[in-house]
Amino acid sequence: MTPLALGLAVSAGADPLAWSRTLALVERADELGLHSAWLPEHHFHRNATPSPLLALSAFAARTRRIRLATTSLLLPVQHPVHVAAQVARLDQLSQGRVLLGLGRGFRRPLFEAFGVAAATKRDRFDEALETMLAAWSGATLSLDGAHFGAADAAPFRLGLRPHQRPHPPLVVAAFGPKGLAQAARHGLPYLASPMEGLPLLEENYARWREDLRAELDPRAPEVPVMRTAFVADDDASAARVRNALAQEMRPALGGPTPKALARASEGPIEDRILVGTRNEVADRIADYRARLGMDLLVVRTEGPGAKPAERDRSLEQLVALAG
Q1: What is the distance between the terminal CA atoms of the chain, rounded to a whole angstrom?
Q2: Of 92, 171, 185, 205, which is most buried with the most CB atoms under 10 A?
Q3: With pLDDT > 70 as the criterion, what percentage of the chain qualifies?
Q4: 14 near 84, Cβ under 8 Å?
Q5: Residue 275, C-beta contacts closer than 8 angstroms, at least 6 positions apart
Q6: pLDDT tens figures, 50-71
Q7: CA of 17: how far to CAs of 21, 27, 43, in Å?
Q8: Given this model, what pLDDT does residue 252 score?
């Protein structure tokens, strides 16, 4: 079986102090030899990360080896030429450490704020990705698509190519049949949501593999899975963190919830987190490996219920388990 890599899911922080803690955590992850640090793209709330590429550039300046990853760069609401140029520059500055997770978004206020019809998000994703791939290849571009076209625009070249050729490795954040099919159609790995329970992941990965029609990029993880993880010192600590996570996951998302997302969040919390003593977490990781073929585990270690020192020890234990 392919060796297991360990990634770290972080947030950019809502204030300078939180940002300093995030930077320190990513620096520590780099020292420990973790595979990657992952940031989402979020908008319109206090902890939002509206420009993950900007935050990742700060990570690049403070680290040497760790890969710089987005969990869900939202292509439907951004111009693909601008995204392609930003990614290429970050990949050059980091000497080829970018790993790009792509997404479509699902909250209606996101599309309304950017003036995008939600029903077009998958078509916009396809058009944006095709434009970005062409731009990174150095080809001459003509913006004549339905969503990002420019009337009477002269052909042009980006003039900026990534350090990695032909481009950084790509994965697609997805849940639900349509998202899985889109990832498979592009021949890209599917990044599993932290909300999906293990039984649903089994079903989704089987569906994705059945629809896959292209050979995967060997530089990208084939089965990346995101989970909140905590290796506890004892049963009492594990119970404290598990209860805090149950409380965190209980509030409604707000507004209408897409059916695929509602289904993803069903099931017991134990199917969606990796929390327990060292032996318990080791057994759960082995179960994911056996049932999914997981080759990259992206962990959120800053969840509720644990003290900073406990989180530090947990991260070190997770590194040891992955190694």
Answers
A1: 13
A2: 171
A3: 95
A4: no
A5: 228, 229, 230, 232, 238, 241, 242, 245, 281
A6: 899 999 999 999 999 999 999 9
A7: 6, 15, 20
A8: 43
